[in-house]
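Two entries, shown back to back:
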Amino acid sequence: MQYLRFIAVAGITVFLFSCKAKNVSPSDSAKDEDGYVSLYNGKDMANWNIMCRDKAPGLAEKVFSAGDNGEMHVYKNFPNGDRRGTGKNGTHCMFFTKEKYSRYSFKFEYKWGDKVFNNYDKFQYDAGMYFHVFDVNIWPKGLEYQVRYDDIRNENHTGCVWNSGASFDWYGDHSEANPKLRTYLSKEDGGVAQEHRGGERPIKMRSTMRLMDNGTNAR
C-alpha cells in the first residue's frame, strides 16, 4: 500500500494543502479556481492520520496547530531550542492522508519559522513530503520531496528527492564530477541515467511544490 505523507522536523507553516485527482468529487465550493481540493480543514488534523516517534498523549495536537487564516503551524507552541542537541527526537512526527488518490496533482506552500529544534545542528531547517511509502514507520521507505534549508551554508535543498529504499530510474546532467551533485535533467532534454542509490537527488525547486501522479494509488 502506498501513502502520501508530510513530515515535520523543524518549525514550519504550511499553506494551501490541496489535491486534484480523478477520484475526488467534492462540491464546487470546496475547490479553488484551478480545481484543487483542500485536504486540510483549517481547524485540526481530523482528516489525517498522525504518527509521532513519542507516543505521549496530546503530542500530535501540540506539534500541529491551526493558524488564523487556514494555515497549519508546526512546533508553534514549543520553546525555541526545544530538545536541540540532546539526541531526543520524540517530536519527530508525520501525517498522511486517510484516503487513496490516483492520477493526482498535489501542491502546497510553506514558510519557515524562526525557532530551531532537535536535529537543527545536523539538518538545520528540515521537513519534507513522502509519497509512495511502502513501509509505514519513522522513518519510512519510499520517496521524499525534501523541504529543507541549510542556513549555515546558505544551501536550499527544497525540492530535492531523497530516496529511502525505493527503486526508480533517475536522469541527470554531467556538469558535476560528483554524481551526488548532479541535478535532475529529463531524458528528453539530454539527461543521462544515473546509478541506483539511496540518499539525496538534487532538483531545483521553489517554495510552491506540486507532485504529479499519472496512475499509481497513493496516500
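entry 2 starts here
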Amino acid sequence: MCRQANIFCPVCPNRPHTLGHILQVCPRSHGPRIQRHNKICEFVQKKLLEKGYVVLWEPRIKTERGFLKPDLIYWKKEDPDIVRILDIGITSDNVRPSVPYLEKVKKYDIDSVRKFAQEVSALDSVWVGALIINWRGAIALDSKNFLKGVIDSRDWAILSLRTLQYGVYSYDFWNKSTCVVDPINEVDW
C-alpha cells in the first residue's frame, strides 16, 4: 500500500511544505529568521566600527507613513563626507536580487529619513542602499557595490556562510518545534 506524503506545511494551511517556505515565511521559524537577520547586521556593524565609522543601529525615524527603522546609519566625517543608510534583507531565491534592493532603497530614500541622517551626522550628502542576500547565500551585486571598501572578499564569503548556517539552524528549529494548526480552525493566510 502506497501512502502519499503530506505536501502542506503543518503550521500554515494550504501552503506547500518547502525549504523556501520554512526559511522565509513560516511562523514556526520566525525567531531563528530574526536571529539570522540580526547576526548579519551585527557582522556588518562590526566591520564598520573596525573601519572607524560611527554607526547607529535601527534608529526609529518618524515619517509621514509612520515610523521606519533602517538597520544601520553610518558615516565617517573625514573619508568621504557622506552618511549612508543601509537596510538588510534576506530574500527568497526566486527573485532577481536587484528587485528587493530597489524596494529597500525606495522605502528609505524619503525626505524624513534623509533629514534624520543629515541631522545626526551633520553631513549633507546621503546615500541609501541595501544588503540583499538570498537564503542560499548569493549576494546582490548592487549590495557589493554599495558596501565597497567596507566589506572585503573574505567578509562576503563569511556573510554567505552565516546566512547558510542560520538557514540550517532555522530548519532544525522548525523540525524540533511542535507548533501546528488545528485543521478545524484553519485560516487562509
